[in-house]
## 1
Amino acid sequence: MIDRSSPSLTEVSSRRRILRAGGLGMLSATAVALLAGNEALAQQQRRQGGAGGGDVAILNVALGLEHEAINAYQIGAESNLLQPAVLQVAVAFQSHHKAHRDALVATIRQMNGAPVAEKTRQEYVQSLNAAAIRNQTDILKLAQRLERGAANAYLGVIPSFTNRDLAKVAGRLAADETMHYTALTQALNEALPGQALSFGA
């Protein structure tokens, strides 16, 4: 969850636009989508050619990932497959993603952009292959995969920012996703990455 005492995406984005170089925004948005393992979204970014500006395009890719995470946790919560303690953590993580979503939406609007719309629940059910979920482990594995993808996506976009404050907020978002990934990995009784620098590569 974003600490409101620190610069939010909305506050820091008003100071300076990101991605001044022409075309870089579209490439960065595509890279973020690929890092997150979302080839369909990357293809969409290529077709749009960064329409609406690089800064808005890259933030909309991030917003799309947040919509996906919120819905994934909702699907898990409604499955009746999660133990009470695990459900409580899942709801907490979902609240973090909702805070991320709200900050991204506010930033995009402040930049005179149009926030990417959330898909229907059925579209998320299909794209996340929710029909294959059979137990708590399946839900945790799905969430783990999405959290790692989101962490890598936020880390991947940091070098594109010319504004240090905006880059810092992206780093903080990546830290949230990494925290989620770590907790989910431990809940699955899996080993954490054995080598340093395992995220954002």
Note: Residues 84-110 form the longest helix (27 residues).
## 2
Amino acid sequence: MILVSACLLGINCQYNCESDLTEKLLEFLKDKGEFIAICPEVLGGLPIPRDASAIVNGGEKDIDLKKVKVRSIKNKDVSNEFVKGAQRVLEIAKQNKVHLAILKAKSPSCGAGLIYDDTFTRNLIAGDGITAAMLKKHGVKVMTEKDLINNKWPK
């Protein structure tokens, strides 16, 4: 079973009420059978649209879910919603024996390898989003749509 960020499938659930439909992802999924569409931020209780958010002092290799801080561009603390969403995604992953997650690159929830820093200037730093980090910690292979676009197809 595969988890997929819903925005990559054309569902308008990103913070700005848009999607990032990725044709290569659709091509990849058509031969894989079943998959589950998720949006951790929505599962955590955030609305669509919502303010852009970032992990404060992100880029940590191991995110401590008890200490992680996520703030919106309007300086609202949305840490609880991000953590709750990640925990719900992990529950879904465990219940469905998920082995692979293809998530939205650069996102404070879903980014894997690179995420936006907390300056809201689109600067990138090394690190994982909260959901990506949690899934990796529990043995789920995580990649982004950028991996597919760059022909790094999973086996």
Note: The chain has one domain: 2-149.
## 3
Amino acid sequence: MMQHHWDDDERLLADLSEAVGETAPLADVIADYGSGAYAWRTVERDLLRASLSFDSSLERVTERRGGPDDPRVLTFTAAPLSVELEVMPDQVVGQILPPGAGEILVETADGVTFHVQADDVGFFILPNVPHGSVRLRCDTAVARLVTDWIRL
């Protein structure tokens, strides 16, 4: 059993020096991980917050042109970007505006996430309709945004 005499400052410093010396080859890797983690501190601040600016399900019935089975249309806006969604029983399609390619991260309230790609005109399809509350994080050449949580 190794016995430490850490009540003596000199011995404590010697033990610490020995311990750090053993990890010296990993120092650059550890520094890189630390720098990467530090860079994430502002990721939420750098995202535009896109508010729900239109929801077709909230229109007064007399103003609707179609029937109750028509797709639900949602628009989230955060200048200079917006995201439009069309929610149908079997799928959700969307478009980033202004049109352009991007990556969409879909987050559900229960912690499930998945990625989809928006094509060159900003069009994307969610592979299945998430149930419950969701929000989208859109990363494009123009900007990055996160939508309000919405119940589909």
Note: The chain has a mean pLDDT of 82.
